Amino acid sequence: MTTAATDPQPAPPRPEAIRIEGLQKSFGTLNVLKGITLTAREGDVVAVIGGSGSGKSTMLRCINFLETPSSGRITIGGEPVAMRADGSPADRRQIERLRQSLGMVFQQFNLWSHKTILENLIEVPVHVLRVPKAQAVARAERLLARVGLAEKAGTYPAFLSGGQQQRAAIARALCMEPRAMLFDEPTSALDPELVGEVLAVIRDLAAEGRTMILVTHEMKFAREVASHVVYLHNGRVEEEGPPEAVFGAPRSDRLKQFLKSVG
Ligand SMILES: Nc1ncnc2c1ncn2[C@@H]1O[C@H](COP(=O)(O)OP(=O)(O)OP(=O)(O)O)[C@@H](O)[C@H]1O
Question: What is the reported pLDDT for 199?
Fold first, then answer.
């Protein structure tokens, strides 16, 4: 029997990495995000699922201001983003700084085609963050080895497969030592046989406790790696919860329908 004196204390909640409150985004008259609220604590893997056009990518792009929100609040690492009433950033330098703390990985890799893989990885650390070149190169080489591309440092992106390019893009994001990673459908542009190698890298990052928000169509993978799943429908969070609940015991008819349609 344990006594009150020896009862373990509940662990304090992990610090918040990303918090979004009441996020709205319209493109002209098209109201895409209708008030999204979501929190990712440090170490969380939040998978965002939903049908085409539900607003998943727009939400992710608003988090690092690749899109300007129409309204709402975004807090990164406890620091509220200064926004004007129309949602535009009030402090460009703050946006740049916060953006650098979020490693974004896109569907289309977005590597610089005229730079080698190593140059892609060290460009921002050396020329923007002023990391000494030798240090940036050492970090880049370590991360390339980690994603299985040690031999490709001197190669140009065009000579790599899509899976290799995406792994390089992940290594490039990690070079910034980000607080959290944002993945926007990282395997959607890949041939099916190349999907697994990219998912393996993401799985590895999740296992080491990396904070991430992952927009994905890979339901099996989302169920496997996510600590929390958010289902978006028509610009709103329709349902959310742990993967066992969202995938195993969906409550809303829309989610049930969606899972049936993808599954
Ligand atoms: N820059 C833009 N200008 C106008 N409309 C946009 C823009 N970006 C996105 N949209 C529209 O916003 C809606 C949501 O798009 P979004 O890409 O966020 O959806 P999604 O859930 O990620 O879809 P998918 O799974 O197909 O990628 C769509 O109707 C899209 O056409």
Answer: 96
Residues with CB under 6 A from ligand 1: 27, 30, 32, 50, 52-58
Residue whose CA is closest, atom 24 of ligand 1? 52
Instruction: Give residue 37 CA to ligand 1 midpoint distance, Å.
Output: 18
E strand or H helix at 114: none
Please name every residue paired with 19 in a beta bridge, in sequence order, or none if there are none.
Answer: 39, 75
CATH of domain 16-101+212-263: 3.40.50.300
Q: Which of 74, 77, 104 is nearest to 89 (CA)?
A: 74
Q: What is the mean pLDDT of each run of 10 residues along the chain (263 residues)?
A: 66 91 95 97 97 96 92 94 86 91 93 97 93 96 96 97 97 95 95 94 95 96 96 97 97 96 87
Q: 216 with 49: CB under 8 angstroms?
A: yes
ipTM, interface predicted TM-score of the complex: 0.97
Domain residue ranges in the chain? 16-101+212-263
The closest-lying atom of ligand 1 relative to the alpha carbon of residue 55 is 18
Half-sphere exposure for 128 (CA within 13 Å, toward CB):
13
Neighbours of 130 (CB within 10 A): 9
Contact status, residue 172 vs residue 164, Cβ threshold 8 Å: no
Residue nearest to atom 13 of ligand 1 (CA): 53
- The confidence score (pLDDT) of residue 4 equals 57
